[in-house]
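Quick one, probably user error.
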């Protein structure tokens, strides 16, 4: 039952990200011609800062490694399987890692879905400044990675603090042990 509860969190978060990713991509494919741009009426002044575009990507996140669709399709299957397998080993209290992996799984499956149903091409639509165009799945993978790094940092701080406290306890206990032994 414990494993089921853990997986429920993983699949709920990943499923929500997958749903949001596919919904936004379908909106873009249905309403903006390939290469086209959309901004809410009256927001045209923001076009150089942020806009919604319809872009296709056959590479990795943010347009890297173009024409690698087959490699990234296989990689997405491997990463997704690894996350699902590894997830059962995570302590339920390790909230950072659990959330990070759920976000990464949702993003990986979101882009994998595009690759499988749209001839190896992923739809990207979020364009901010001069940064590469990306989608909800890409953002989820990136934010999940940042959360994972923060989690590792927090865990290391906790372990260092626990080590310091244990060493302090050992120093406090050692003199008392000597006194007790001398009283015998």
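Nope, works fine. Designed sequence:
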């Amino acid at each position: 039952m414990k494993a089921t509860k853990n997986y429920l969190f993983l699949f709920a978060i990943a499923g929500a990200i997958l749903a949001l990713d596919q919904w936004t991509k379908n909106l873009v494919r249905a309403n903006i011609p390939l290469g086209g741009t959309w901004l809410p009426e009256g927001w045209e002044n923001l076009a150089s800062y942020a806009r919604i575009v319809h872009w296709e990507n056959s590479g990795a996140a943010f347009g890297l490694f173009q024409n690698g669709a087959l490699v990234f399709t296989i990689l997405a299957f491997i990463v997704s399987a690894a996350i699902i397998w590894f997830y059962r080993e995570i302590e339920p209290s390790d909230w950072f890692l659990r959330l990070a992996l759920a976000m990464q799984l949702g993003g990986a499956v979101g882009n994998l879905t595009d690759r499988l149903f749209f001839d190896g091409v992923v739809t990207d639509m979020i364009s901010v400044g001069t940064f590469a165009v990306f989608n909800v799945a890409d953002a989820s993978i990136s934010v999940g990675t940042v959360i994972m790094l923060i989690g590792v940092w927090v865990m290391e701080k906790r372990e260092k603090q626990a080590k310091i406290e244990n060493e302090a306890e050992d120093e406090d206990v050692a003199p008392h042990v000597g006194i007790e032994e001398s009283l015998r």
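Residues 136-183 form the longest helix (48 residues).
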